[in-house]
Amino acid sequence: MVRILPLLIVVILITSCKEKTSYRMQLLIENKTDNKIAVKLFPKSEYLHNDLYDFSDFGSGYNGTEHNIESNRNESLYYSENTDQKPFSLAAKIFDSIHITPFNKDKKVMKFSIDTVIGYSENLFDSISSWNYEIKDYDEPDNFNQNPVESHDYSFIISIDKY
Length: 163
Description:
mainly beta; five-stranded antiparallel beta sheet; four-stranded mixed beta sheet
């Protein structure tokens, strides 16, 4: 009984501790075309590690620079703990350019860079670009708790009527 009491106290303390909400910002590319699209990312050299790039300013982890996004799906480009920034500014901080190629008969490449856009009506790096904004709340599990997260998601929409 004497050994069980300290263990019971530790378990109660661990399970009763409420985690503080984490706040995040996420950049996404959303495919609103009828076809799959290929996305090729060109991160700045400080984020690039061979064919991978550092996709977050917290924790550690790397992601590939090439992605295929199915129709009506999205792909995360970057996560940040700093929610007090604009999506176009964060994109310009992380990437030199982004190329998108639709899997259709034209295969017209859209090229986005900080100072120019080719093949699309707006530049995701520009301050006047349209980003869809949504706050999502969810829990991330760890060993003992569910850690609440408030994610500020910014999606740049690729749609057929804009290219």
